[in-house]
Amino acid sequence: MQTEAHPIGVLLVDDHQTMLWGLSRLIDGEQPRMKVVATASCCEEAVAHTQSLAPDVIVLDLDLDGHCALDILPQLLSNEVSRVVVLTGEREQRTLDLAVLRGARGVMRKDASAEQVLDAIERVHHGELCLDAPTMGRVLSELTSVKKPPKADPESVRQASLTQKERDIVRTVVHGSGASNKTLAGQAFVTEHTLRNHLTSIYQKLGVTNRLELYIYAVKHHLDAMAH
Prior knowledge:
This is DNA-binding response regulator. The protein is α/β, with parallel strands linked by helices and 228 residues long. The chain has two domains: 8-146, Response regulator (Rossmann fold, 3-Layer(aba) Sandwich), CATH 3.40.50; 154-221, Orthogonal Bundle (Arc Repressor Mutant, subunit A). It is 49% helix and 14% strand. It has eleven helices and seven strands. It has a five-stranded parallel β-sheet, with helices on both faces. Strand 6, helix 4 and strand 7 form a beta-alpha-beta unit. The protein is rod-shaped and about 95 Å long. The model has no long low-confidence stretch (mean pLDDT 88).
């Protein structure tokens, strides 16, 4: 690759001072191709340096003094300039996949060679992804999979089966809880016979057996307000 007109500005984020020292010497030894613009050893420093310096590439350890750096990835990427290469000892594959899903362009183990680290910084700076094939496969599968809709709540299914007229009847029963069927039928503008037919259907759909159970069910599930 040709030498950059400006060196690639790199922010190093790791809570191990020895690692920061080694990476700094490695990257600064590559000038003018790239240089370290700052180092950080915690999440707060990483975010502050990113906001003030807008580094081209952030080399990020995921475990920062017991805090997971996944949580700050959106802030590190919010300037639309910085790109993230994760360099970590993390072995949990799901965590590494999440880093990519949240925007990291590269993932490397801490046992990677110096050449591999330098190559990853340069490739990510040029817009490439630096991921192994299995990681790419899992991430693409996650991004393209059709999410199954959550199973419907059985009570919601029962309530959705009520017709608009039956909802009106339920509301009438709740608001006239002590009234006779004849009175309720008048309030619902139906005959008493039709009211009884509606109530039978409602009982079957909601799994109740009488007006008292219907009243308790309707109040519990706020059905007295469903008719509007």
